[in-house]
Amino acid sequence: MKPISHPFLSSSSSTTLLFSASVLLVFISCTTTTTTTEAAISLPKNVTIPAVIVFGDSIVDQGNNNNIKTLVKCNFPPYGKDFMGGKPTGRFSNGKTPADMMAEELGIKELIPAYLDPNLQDKDLPTGVSFASGATGFDPQTPAIVSVISLDEQMKMFKEYIGRLKGMVGEERTNFILTNSIYLVVAGSDDLANTYFTIGIRRLQYNVNSYTDLMVRGASNFVKELHELGAKRIGVFGAAPIGCLPSQRTLGGGILVRHCAENYNQAAQMFNAKVPVALSSLKSSLNDAKARLVYIDIYNPLLDLIQNHEKYDLVIINREQGLLLPIKGVVALEISKITLTAEENAQPVRVCDLCMAEVSQRLSNAKEAASKSVGLQSHEDLAKKLHEEMERNRKPSSGFRSDGSSGRRMKEVARPTCTVHLQV
To answer: Deepest of 82, 86, 375, 410, by most Cβ within 10 A of its Cβ?
Structure first.
């Protein structure tokens, strides 16, 4: 057990970094509860956290995108290779997500289910679900471009969830769950990495400063509505160092050297600096002593993991690609390799490289076609046209076939979803 003596403890441990949200969001309540999973964190006797309820993007998408019509999916290998049974579930991860880890640390349950999972059971609802959708953002244009679930739609799903809870456990218990649960809001990285920098439609209207203002307003309005529906303990994640994502290093860091794109990271830092100020202002306006609005920094821990990997027992085995692998059992992400050819002795190919080459070409073609279109009156028109062009260009790349015939071919599961996910 890891006892908690203060709601704002922090740690430099690579393990507890993943669970900093669970430490930051421990708030005092007046009742107790029992849980079915053994907690790794020992809560004070007068604190209860009945559920973890999650909104946002691919960081906490537990599989909702499996059940909507979008390119942004990851229900294929190598995703899920370290998950139970080694099966892809729609989580944008090799294993569990931060939402799963937090629920398990708090002793609530081992896994947070996706709200749209067709196998979701009523008994799962009182302990929390995820409404998150990979590639969404605070900017309404971000989910619209790739046809994923917007935060407005996630809020509507949450309202439906509340109604289902009331039908199951009654209004009094529902209000207790809403008041005492932890809420995570994880978005913003896709707004910057995709909508602003990669696709660029918002650069027609905003500079980085004004665009991050738009993002922060979206975050603040979302948190305010959550509070109006009964939420008290709300944690808002900052943006990650998006310039160090594999896709953004390729697109913005130089094709040959693939450095972290510093202007992308600077934009993320600007957004992150504004979020806690907005949350503080919102907290003052709520006039609610029980409300806890917490900013959760993921930028600096992740950047530290990249820049000082040796502290976390990680080693870069390929400096050109910047791969981080565990050497002492510490969990880390790696760019997996799978064979995409039919030849028996074919060399593995990095999925990332293939996907990035294709998505870069598609985006280039789509932007060129969209920019030549006539009758565009606004950035919304451009976004719609760009989406149409990307859909029109969804054809297999030359040299690969998905019909199962002999020769070089792309596995069906590896196409076309990974091409867009790597922008997430």
So the answer is: 410
